[in-house]
Inverse folding.
């Protein structure tokens, strides 16, 4: 029996994750997405699984999301899934270079589940999905309606750019007020929660990747022109990470928040998002076309590099002897590799990054009134207060003493 022919498949009481109309659009327009990556012209496969035990909608949805989280390891892309409740068979639609990639994913992630993989013609898939679309929407269960959503997406935003403090006081106040308004308005609009907010930064959480990405895009779209009008080198810095919530504990959640903040810290004009967030956003919002290059996804290798770099800096930034060559052993890269990666990801050389990181810490200490200027200069690894003042003024366009006075006024 040809299981792909709609007449032979009873899918009318099924879990349906991706809207068929969206899938049809994607299959008909394989290059319609422009989110810093493009869909390749790869063949389509259906992997059908014989399921036993727990076949509740929430359980199957969670397994689907776990596949999305790891699919990049196997060079696959999961477009959707369906579940035949009567026969207890799940059907997963993939895009992949070959059958072996999907076999490898199945073996590593679902080794104890029997399966069968079939390469399919996109025209058959197109027809098949149209048949499902003709059924009533009440027979479908959207993954976004599942109460046990296994992912929380963390969005970190900051306008703490170098030239912010060279603005006139009223200009800066107006900018901070607008930043606060946009963050709170769009957080509410996309049903997010504020976990931390101050004048210069915010961290928000959302139940879906698409809500976090849409919120970031809306704020970015409205706020960026305001920054450009000020004719300063100012950026809205944005980082997005995700935390899977099955067996979640507080430490894992805090690590995800920290990752979003790290991505935000190194971001400039583009929104930086982890690969799992990008994959989930893609699955949830396939019909959306994002113009330009406002979003950049961070690969697993890049993420590891960023994590190692930031962990090292967080532990050693007070060390007066810290210099670029000390990064080589910790990061496991040569001097040239570190330089190349840091210029690509952060836009700074290692030595410039170390100095900027120390100055940023000093700025926070001055803002929090954690000592006088001389104490802060030595605490942040500078050899003398005069050299610290010179570097601080060059970085932020204002002397440390004047910066402290400005913070009192704001």
């Amino acid at each position: 029996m040809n299981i792909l022919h709609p007449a032979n498949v009873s899918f009318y009481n099924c879990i349906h994750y991706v809207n068929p109309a969206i899938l049809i659009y994607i299959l008909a327009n394989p290059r319609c997405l422009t989110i810093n990556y493009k869909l390749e012209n790869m063949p389509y496969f259906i992997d059908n699984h014989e399921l036993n035990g727990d076949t509740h909608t929430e359980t199957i949805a969670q397994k689907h999301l776990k596949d999305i989280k790891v699919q990049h390891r196997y060079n696959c892309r999961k477009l959707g899934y369906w579940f035949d409740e009567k026969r207890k068979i799940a059907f997963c639609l993939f895009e992949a270079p070959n059958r072996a990639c999907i076999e490898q994913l199945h073996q590593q992630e679902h080794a104890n589940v029997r399966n069968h993989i079939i390469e399919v013609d996109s025209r058959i898939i197109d027809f098949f999905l149209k048949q499902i679309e003709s059924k009533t929407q009440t027979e479908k269960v959207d993954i976004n309606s599942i109460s046990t959503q296994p992912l929380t997406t963390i969005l970190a935003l900051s306008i703490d750019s170098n030239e912010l403090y060279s603005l006139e006081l009223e200009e800066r106040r107006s900018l901070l007020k607008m930043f606060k308004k946009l963050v709170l308005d769009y957080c509410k609009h996309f049903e997010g929660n504020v976990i931390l907010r101050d004048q210069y930064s915010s961290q928000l959480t959302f139940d879906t990747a698409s809500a976090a990405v849409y919120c970031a895009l809306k704020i970015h779209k409205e706020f960026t022109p305001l920054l450009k009008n000020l004719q300063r080198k100012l950026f809205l810095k944005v980082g997005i990470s995700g935390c899977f919530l099955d067996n979640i504990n507080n430490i894992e959640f805090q690590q995800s928040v920290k990752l979003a903040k790290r991505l935000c810290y190194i971001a400039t004009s583009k929104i930086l998002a982890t690969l799992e967030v990008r994959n989930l956003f893609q699955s949830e919002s396939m019909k959306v076309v994002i113009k330009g290059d406002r979003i950049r996804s961070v690969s697993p290798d890049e993420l590891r590099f960023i994590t190692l770099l930031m962990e090292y800096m967080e532990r050693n930034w007070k060390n007066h002897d810290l210099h670029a060559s000390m990064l080589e052993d910790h990061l496991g890269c040569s001097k040239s590799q570190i330089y190349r990666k840091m210029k690509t990801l952060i836009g700074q050389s290692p030595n410039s990054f170390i100095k900027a990181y120390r100055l940023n810490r000093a700025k926070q200490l001055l803002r929090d009134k954690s000592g006088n200027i001389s104490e802060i200069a030595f605490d942040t690894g500078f050899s003398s207060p005069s050299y610290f003042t010179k570097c601080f003024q060059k970085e932020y366009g204002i002397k440390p003493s004047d910066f402290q006075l400005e913070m009192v006024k704001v």
Q: What stands out?
A: Residues 169-189 form the longest helix (21 residues). The chain has a mean pLDDT of 76. The beta strands are 44-50, 77-84, 89-95, 115-120, 151-158, 193-197, 201-206, 237-244, 271-274, 295-298. DSSP finds 15 helices and ten strands in the chain.
